[in-house]
Specification:
The chain is an alpha+beta fold and 188 residues long. It has 2 domains: 80 residues; 78 residues, no CATH class. The protein has a 5-stranded antiparallel sheet with strand order 1-2-8-4-5, with no helix packed on it. Strand 6 and strand 7 form a beta hairpin. Helix 2 packs across helix 3 and helix 3 runs antiparallel to helix 5.
């Protein structure tokens, strides 16, 4: 299963003003750099955890329906099913009624009855499922430990710009990694 980003988050989990307060900066000279570091920190946390922090839209692409009837939303946490379609051999899309799926936000899964759904006849990528994921629309919806990890990453990368810009990546501070560790989703 592949996941494709359709609509990125409208806001970052940490504002530029919040980051500047944490960095104890008043000047605006480094604002573009700090904004880029905030985005990089969000992407780092999302990659490490398998979570979407602020509401985003993603498309999951499957070859066939899972036999067990469970589709794990990736990334998590699942907010809602937006659309679903299957494709025939000629590439024509057939919309599937959203009521066919049972979303479970607590487990970030969509439950289905696989034999009750139309089968795709396209050889690969015959199913597309569009989902909304994330903790919510606002930065304040993101759990505070994750927001603190982002603050720490931004500060670390800001202070170690020479390492980040060079051939070596600046190591992630252990206290930032410890803050995001409880939110990591492990593949089975």
């Amino acid at each position: 299963m592949a996941s494709i980003l359709l609509a990125p988050p409208a806001v970052e989990p940490l504002s530029l003003a919040e980051a500047k307060v944490f960095l104890r900066l008043e000047m605006a000279d480094d604002d573009p750099l700090i904004a880029a570091l905030i985005s990089a920190a969000r992407l780092h946390v999302e990659t490490q955890t398998g979570l979407a922090l602020v509401t985003q839209r993603w498309r999951m692409v499957l070859d066939c329906w899972p036999v067990n009837g469970r589709i794990a939303a990736r990334p998590a946490p699942l907010q809602a099913l937006v659309a679903a379609r299957v494709f025939d051999f000629d590439g024509e899309a057939r919309t599937i009624d959203a009521q066919t799926f049972v979303p479970n936000a607590s487990t970030s899964t969509l439950s289905i009855i696989p034999w009750a759904l139309p089968m795709p006849t396209r050889i690969a990528a015959g199913i597309e499922i569009d989902i909304a994921v994330g903790f919510g629309d606002a930065a304040s919806d993101v759990p505070e430990p994750i927001r603190q990890a982002i603050r720490l990453l931004v500060a670390h990368w800001y202070e170690n710009r020479a390492i980040v810009a060079g051939s070596e990546a600046a190591p992630v501070p252990s206290h930032a990694a410890a803050l995001i560790a409880p939110y990591r989703t492990l593949p089975l």
